[in-house]
Amino acid sequence: MLVILPFILGLVPGVFWLWYVYRRDKYQYEPIALVLLVTGLGALSIGPAVILEEVFHRFIYPLDCISVHGCFIAYFFGVGPIEELCKFLAVLAIYWHKAFDEPVDGIIYGSASAVGFATVENLLYITSGPDITTIFSVFIARFLLATVAHIFFACMWGYNLGKRRMGIKSSVVVGLITAMFLHGLYNFILSYSILSSSLLLPLMVVMFLMARGRLRHALILSPFRFKKDRLVRCPYCKEFSKFRNGFCIVCGRRYEVKGDLEARCPSCGRLLDMFKDVCSNPNCRQPLRKIVGLEEGGEENLLTKPAEGDANTGDCGDEQ
Asked: N or C: less crowded end of the chain, CB within 10 Å?
């Protein structure tokens, strides 16, 4: 049992965090086989990363983590850029796959690649522990810090890659540079105990907030945000009903749901909950039907629009 324990502990962080990230895609889960494929490619990418780092340290700049200057060069211009580029290329291999169909997929597949890469590192570090105490110490550090940090790095460029895949203007290069910088900074801080004791936790918090913000915005941009059976207001009969296959179940008319909804109350400016009847501001309480333009002669409807071919049809019957 003690022989296989290090191998089990080496796999646990990757399995747990891959499951956790996979569940963040709340509108449409990715094919498990494809996620595992990217995880495997991420694990294999550690080979080219090791070779490129060796070339960098041998022919470009020698590995020197004793001096601050040498450590800075090694991590910010060597380790960080090389490892992030290798993980990025693992995701680029499935960039044109039909399952890559929403912005958050860039984060999911980027995280899968990062988990694969980090898992190989976990196995190398944990299995090399001389005793059980060291093994568990390394396991905790890799579980709570290193594996999570790799996922945070991948979120920086995965978010931009997912938006770009959907045709949304976004700079993947900026995302990669951000990840490379954070990766180098993370390793640089870990190299000095005086820095890691005071700066490591704030850095992890900042990266968490950056990753969470990107994840939330990617989910807002998802074309699957309005799933089957979600309540929407029909642009014809003005009634709330469940959105099923593009038809209102109250009046039977076909319509489409717009993907990104952020409407503000014209009276108070508060962000509206599109599924409430009135503005949520207790001092305003303006009826939502007027806000989203569902009244006759109102402004353009921000919630729904008629499907093509139905825009000029007649009345849909009496309102219920």
From this structure: N
The predicted-structure confidence for 178-195, as pLDDT tens digits, reads as follows 999 999 999 999 988 778
What is the edge-to-edge ordering of all strands in the sheet holding 240-244?
A: 231-233, 240-244, 247-248
Q: Is residue 189 part of a domain?
A: yes
Q: Average pLDDT for residues 1-27, to the nearest whole number?
A: 88
Q: How far apart are the C-alpha atoms of 116 and 36, rounded to whole Å?
A: 9
- Which residue, among 14, 211, 259, has the nearest Cα to 106 in the 3D structure? 211
Query: How far apart, in whole angstroms, are the C-alpha atoms of residue 203 and residue 311?
Result: 52
Cα–Cα distance measured from residue 195 to residue 189, given in angstroms and rounded to the nearest whole number? 5
| 213 in the same domain as 253 | no
Show which of 173, 195, 220 is a domain's final residue. Answer: 220
**Are 11 and 67 in a shared domain?**
yes
Residue 243 pLDDT exceeds 90: no
Q: How many domains does the chain have?
A: 2
User: What count of other Cβ atoms lies within 10 Å of the Cβ of residue 170?
Assistant: 18
pLDDT(304) > 70: no
Alpha-carbon distance of 126 to 192, in angstroms, equals 21
SS3 244: strand
Residue 144 is given by DSSP the state I
User: How many CA atoms does the CB half-sphere of 240 hold within 13 Å?
Assistant: 8
Q: C-alpha distances in angstroms, 267 versus 47, 125, 271?
A: 59, 59, 11
- Determine the Cα–Cα distance for residues 282 and 304; give it in Å rounded to an integer: 26
Q: Which residues contact 141 (CB under 8 A, 6 or more apart)?
A: none
Query: Could you tell me if 34 and 164 lie in one domain?
Result: yes
* Cα(310)–Cα(312) distance, integer angstroms: 6
Q: With contact defined as beta carbons under 8 Å apart, do 162 and 103 qualify?
A: yes
Q: Are residues 31 and 129 in the same domain?
A: yes
For the chain, strand residue ranges (E) read 231-233, 240-244, 247-248, 255-257, 304-306
Residue 98 shares a structural domain with residue 158: yes
Nearest partner of 108 among 25, 13, 219, judged by Cα: 25
Q: What is the extent of the structural domain holding 179?
A: 5-220
- Residues 78 and 179 reside in one and the same domain: yes
